[in-house]
Amino acid sequence: MEKNYPRCPAENFRLHISKTKKNSLWIIIHMHCMRAVI
């Protein structure tokens, strides 16, 4: 149970991203493009 629900919020957030890899990848690409434009 502890392994599935790590104490560190960062790890929990990481697990959430792993569940939505497509969304996270799209967001990362979008952010990178925005930085490139700026």
**What's the rounded overall pLDDT mean?**
68
| Rounded Rg | 13 Å
Describe the main β-sheet briefly.
none
Q: Give the CA-based shape.
A: elongated
3D structure, described in words:
- The chain has 38 residues and is mainly α.
- The chain has one domain.
- It has 2 helices and no strands.
- The chain has helices spanning 9-19, 21-37.
- The protein is elongated, with a radius of gyration of 13 Å.
- The N and C termini lie far apart (44 Å).
Main features:
2 helices; mainly alpha; about 40 residues
Give the topology:
Elements: H1 9-19, H2 21-37
Short description:
With 38 residues, this protein is mainly alpha-helical. It is built from two helices and no strands.
